Structure prediction request, 96 residues.
Amino acid sequence: MAGGPGRYRDDMSEEKRELAGRSNKLLDALRHLKATEERKREVPISTPRYHELEDDANATSREIFRTARDEARLSDEIPTGSDSIDDVERQTGTGS
Prediction:
């Protein structure tokens, strides 16, 4: 194994940290989408403000799908183990 056993473990830890970061990004975008949609429901339909919020919601939705796709691809590269994303965050001291 190139770089020795510790190198392999460090690489996997980095991938797990990246996965946790993508998961946090996804959760943040979902919270933003929910807040935007709630604001949109309060403004008169088809006003300029309504369309601004609609555009924001659509852009955020596209970001959510991209992030979810990237997260799925990354998770496919990580071997099955016993760590959850929450476990990774507890071990690294990160979180959303």
The longest helix spans residues 4-40.
